[in-house]
Amino acid sequence: MIVDDDAGDRKIVHKHLLNLYPGANIHEASSGEQALALSEAEVDAAFVDYQLPGGTGLDLLSNFSLTWPRALLFIMTSQGDEGIAKNAILAGANDYIPKAAITPSALKRMIQNGSELADMRWQINEHQNELKLFSDVLVHDLRAPIRAVKFLCDQILEDYEAGEVEEVAREFDLMKMSVQKMSELIEQLATHIRPDSEGKSRLIPVEKLFEDAQMAMAHDILASSAQITWEDGGLTVLCFPPEVTQLLQNLIGNSIKYSGGGRPEIKVEAAAEPGGVRISVQDNGIGVPKQYRERIFEPFKRLQNTGDAPGTGLGLATCTKIAKRHNGRIWCDPEVQSGTVIHFTLLLS
Is residue 69 a contact partner of residue 92, using CB atoms and an 8 Å limit? Predict the structure, then answer.
């Protein structure tokens, strides 16, 4: 988007941007009000003149950031001024440029540098938000098993002194379960925060991914008498195999966990997708209400009617991270009337 009350200046910037990015959709506005009226438009970068009718470009930056939170914001001015440049950066602009210095190479450099910096800031913000959630869940979810261990320690000492050996043995088993719960929680949190593999992506048959997931889930499948059908379509995919195996484990584990007491019937199917594959996991479980089909992929979000089921609400959030690492996405099928169908794509190239 170009915001400038001078039509000639807008034309120059428009021409340079179109030469750099043929086919780009470029919006023009002569004022801040006109620009914000285009709030439904997708804006990746905005070039805003410092001098505008009714105020300065700096006055618009906060509104622009709210309207297009991931857009790059650049301030342009007719004259070079270090004071304006400093104020522009402090106000949230990614960069500042005098109009006399605007050239295709300068614009390209600004956009590239701004993109790298914006991505870094976005990742830092996301990481900070996840650290806050991490600390919240540690305080909340670890409190109960820690209290249980403390209580059991007191009981074990009391029963040991009373010579009640069988009761001591039972309490030791309960303590072991509490410690195991803490261990699993910490492991899931660590996996969610650092899901990225240090290995390299490689081309692998989808059949092999299914085999690895089936082997890892063998105990749960047997214990639940789950019936699983696998259709790999003879496809191969470029991916980080351990992460995709984990993603499949999480989805199949959910299908077993939320089976509603019946025998889980699960179908895992792969289909070709432009640039990769789409994998779907379908089950006959309790299903996900329509109003929750997007929220379940947020960290620590669980359905209200699943409170008795074990888990931290991190499984699907971790799946989302893994899908994004593969340039793909994950979603709950909005058209399903019974059970649940989760789709995810793997689009590494």
Answer: no
Of the candidates 146, 175, 193, which is a domain's last residue?
A: 193
Q: What is the pLDDT of residue 175?
A: 86
The answer to whether the predicted template modeling score (pTM) of the entire model surpasses 0.70 is: no
Q: Exposure pattern of 277-300 as b/e (b: 16+ CB <10 Å)? A: bbbbbbbbbbbbeeebbeebbebb
Same domain, 175 and 63: no
Residue 76 lies in a domain: yes
Distance CA 209, CA 228 (A): 15
Are 94 and 148 contained in the same domain? Answer: no
Distances (CA, A) of 217 to 76, 85, 112, 174, 241: 58, 58, 44, 25, 16
- 50 and 143 part of one domain: no
Q: How far is CA 84 from CA 59, 185, 218, 293, in A?
A: 12, 50, 64, 47
Q: Supply the range of the domain harboring residue 164.
A: 130-193
Could you read off the pLDDT of 247-288 as tens digits, one per residue? Answer: 898 899 889 988 888 999 999 999 999 999 999 999 999 888
Nearest of 104, 96, 59, 54 to residue 78 by alpha carbon: 96
Question: Residue 346 pLDDT > 80, yes or no?
Answer: yes
* Size of the chain in residues: 349
Terminal alpha carbon distance of the chain: 30
What lies within 8 Å, CB to CB, of 216 at 6+ separation is 245, 249
Q: Quick one: which of 112, 79, 119, 120 has its CA closest to 95?
A: 112
Count of alpha carbons within 13 Å of 223, Cβ hemisphere only? 7
Say which amino acid occupies 219: H
Residues 272, 326, single domain; the answer is yes
Do the bridges between strand 265-273 and strand 227-231 make them parallel or antiparallel, or are there none, so unpaired?
A: parallel
**Nearest partner of 157 among 148, 167, 147, judged by Cα:** 167
88 is a domain residue: yes
